[in-house]
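Reopening this one. Same input as before:
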Amino acid sequence: MKSSKSRRALAFDFGASSGRAMLGEISGDKIILQEIHRFSNDPVKICGTLYWDVLRLFYEIRQGLIKAKLAGGFDSVGIDTWGVDFGLLDDEGRLIENPVHYRDSRTAGMIEESFKHIPRQRFYDITGNQFMELNTVFQLLSIVKQRPHIFDRAQTMLLMPDLFNYLLTGVKSTEYTIASTTQLLDAKNKTWSEEIVQALGIPGRLLTQIAQSGTVIGKISQELCEELDIPPADVIAVASHDTQSAVVAIPSQEKDFVFLSCGTWSLMGTELDAPLINDKSSEYNITNEGGAGNKTTFLKNIIGLWLIQESRRQWQREGTDYSYAKLEELALSARPFESFIDPDAPDFVSPGNIPQRVREFCRRTNQAVPESVGEIMRCIYQSLAMKYRYSLEQIESCTEKTYPAIHVVGGGVKDRLLCQMTADACGRQVIAGPIEATVLGNIAVQLMASGEISGLTEARRLIANSEKATIYQPQEFEAWNKAYKRFKNIVKSN
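Same output, byte for byte:
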């Protein structure tokens, strides 16, 4: 630590369903957190398009700034969000329309369309990114093909955390980790790929200068400070993709570790010094994403707790409001290994009746069809745990390393059943915690930028001291191992 008086960092963490503002500072040998504001993040569907309510979200940022001042003040602000989504600004810096949600259907068929302009292998060799229809590049390609007039007005594209930073400071900039979610970034050179931009007809003027994690973007604008009666604090580009903020907070002192950041999405991966792009990583469709400290995160994107969250919403629509604890209890009461889904099948991406889609998937793949709530939940839980093992095997095959433990961080830490099933399915120790990994990582990068923390090693040591981990040991690996062969066959044939 560089100073006797610790700075107070204000972190805004936006997830796909909620957001919060938390203050953090170093106290002794820990980072202590104080939640000051929490709010829902509710997409809105209008005329067939699913949008993020960005104006409402910026209102919540303003409320968080006011509450942070009342809670004792702050020295800096950092914002992290989900990846890939963006806003478009006109030549006067005004938002053209609300950002479109990554689950919107506009990107259907865009991966195949892109291959008409650039070969798949060349595309992967440049970006090292997992092909997913929701990626920024395919959203932009959908505009090229379906709404080209939008680009007549658009001058700048800002990804979600960069858009919020712009609304705070007036500065247009793109942070490195969030840029790496777009599938427009040259992974090795860490610059925008002119080859991809030109091949797909995307206007290059949309792309701004890339800033490394920990860069001070600017200060909160004078206008906003006067309106809210707040100080002109630094706005810092943290590891602004929420996954990368979570990776900063992995409480490992080992160089080689594997993590599972578990929330609406599950992201399983490891941290490398450089991108790993070869025929095997391409075959497995593994992504190379930029990380804090100039690192590369080698990971798989897996549909995660969304399956449970959206199923619960469906049952609420049908008139029954199950708690998550009750859903876990019902899952435990059902017979194991009766049926599986591939969590990443296209069936489960869009909002809607997930329980019915689970039944249809099982029927289509000639399995026992889960009917009760417990049977459906059991199917989802065990399928997630099996998909984690499937992804872990691919990561280990590419890195030629074996990881004896899995660090689980994020909201999934609270799901004890999923943590135990993950240990059982993978045959590995699961180290669960911290729950607030994303916020801790956000705050740690702010404190690294100010010199309060020397780097990633010290940040992870402080975070390891800040929250006690829960350990899960494999208990039924043989039974899971036997069932895993069936799961693999279902995934490969789907």
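So the earlier flakiness isn't reproducible anymore. For the record, DSSP finds 19 helices and 21 strands in the chain.
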